[in-house]
Amino acid sequence: MYLNLLVKVPNAPGKLLFQKKAETTYVYYEISRTYDPEKQYTYPKRVVIGKMSKKDPEQMQPNENYLKFFPDEELPEKDVRELRSSCLKIGTYIVINKLAKDLGIPRVLGNYFSPKNLGLFMDLAAYSIIEESNIAQYYPSYAYNHPLFTEGMHIYSDSKVSGFLNEITDEQSAGFLNEWNGGRRHREKIYISYDSTNKNCQAGDIEMAEFGNAKDDKGLPIFNYSIAYDTKNREPLFYEKYPGSINDVSQLQYALDKASSYGYKNVGFILDRGYFSKRNIGYMDERGYSFVIMAKGMASFVKGLVDEVAGTFEKKRVHFVPEYQVYGITVKKKLYMTDSRDRYFHIYYNSAKSSSEENAINTRLENMKKFLLKNVNKDREFGPIYEKYFFLHHDEDTGVFVYPEEKTQVIDEELNHCGYFVIITSEKMTAKEAIELYKSRDSSEKLFRGDKTYLGDRSLRVYSDESAASKIFIEFVALIIRCRMYTCLKDAVREMDKKPNYMNVPAAIRELEKIEMVRQLDGVYRLDHAVTATQKTILQAFGINPEHIKYKAEYISNELKK
Questions:
Q1: Helix axis angle, 465-494 to 442-449, nearest 10°
Q2: Band of the pLDDT at 549, cuts 50, 70, 90?
Q3: Fewer CB under 10 Å: which end of the chain, C or N?
Q4: Number of other CB atoms surrounding residue 362 within 10 Å
């Protein structure tokens, strides 16, 4: 992130390199050298600290690395707005303030941050939720028309925000996570949904950003990010960040150890098929953790299970689970030949899933057949996917492709398995209980969609490991608050006869942002109008009434008078 100001090019003889790309000249600063004894050559390690001004050859526009490597250089006073918008959007701020206090977040953070920095931390978290963005340079624009958590509701510049992100330490984030998890209920049985994603890194020298298997592949280096979510109490517990080249299966064991270190003993883990491995299941057994895990696709052992029970439960009402429109049956077996324990395999059938998968297979086969027929009388080979479904006949003399013949037995077998899926549990339970537990991880999946979509976090635009770690920390705290917003709204909808289209987090935020205070001729901020019926319904979900809005509006007005 580049700061919205200019500084003099540092006086660092022999350590600066100027490199022009397109119309921009970037300034590189040498931070170390590595000697290769085999090649007898020294390799310099450089980072970008800014880009040259196009108007003044002695000045440059700095980024976060400049703040890191030249901390004693004074920055010019610039773009620190003393004026504030005459119209402040206060609704979502009041909700976030209440929920954060209910969760005890300011109290926990206050043990690791000064009052000044605590306010800025909370403002950046609120900014992520309200503006669906993590770009620090736009924070002053947000602060211009919102009340703030900072002392005196002071608006800080983007350079101050960048400096703050570089100052947050691992000790502060670890301290928060220790205290946050220390306050959870450790005696009751809970199930932790563990899921991961990865984030693109658009700029900078981030050591944990490596090329790996990106889920949103933009050809950029990535790092992985995982969250453990308590499905019973419906709140995030902890997060992990790790290099992009490490896969999910390998990382799970470290997450299990971390859960144990936080004091979680009487827990089970709910995992998607990406974590399915003999090694992971064995490790959970060793740690004494139960598990609920989706089996991978139609692996051979899954097909065998389905074939054993097919036709015995799919049309019987006693096996129907109406909440999820599936039929389910449970079978007790060993997971693999050397397995020392019995596992419970819950086989499900969904007619709508069956129809959808059957149509997809038939459409794919028709497209493949059309492609094959276009290549008749041509000398060419086809890939293994075509060989799986077709006998590919070639002329014995010329070698050209003659015609395709469907492998009907293979295709029929695949069609017969449409609509089935299997969930495996380590503890004895019914098919209904197993799918209810597994579906409880839907909230954690929505949490990830919130992280990547609603919090503007598909990519990080930072230039240092410190800033990347700080943003992840702030956004995790924002996710805790946003998750509470989600569960409050969801619980309120359950009590309603109809589901209004404004009772979801993005729509609720848009509506709450319409609650405004206006600065009048005497310089005092006052509520612009009464709370509407729609806003009352939304606020009621968070335990807030119109009188509380008036009280908080008066508090904001008095703070701004100071």
A1: 130
A2: very high
A3: C
A4: 12
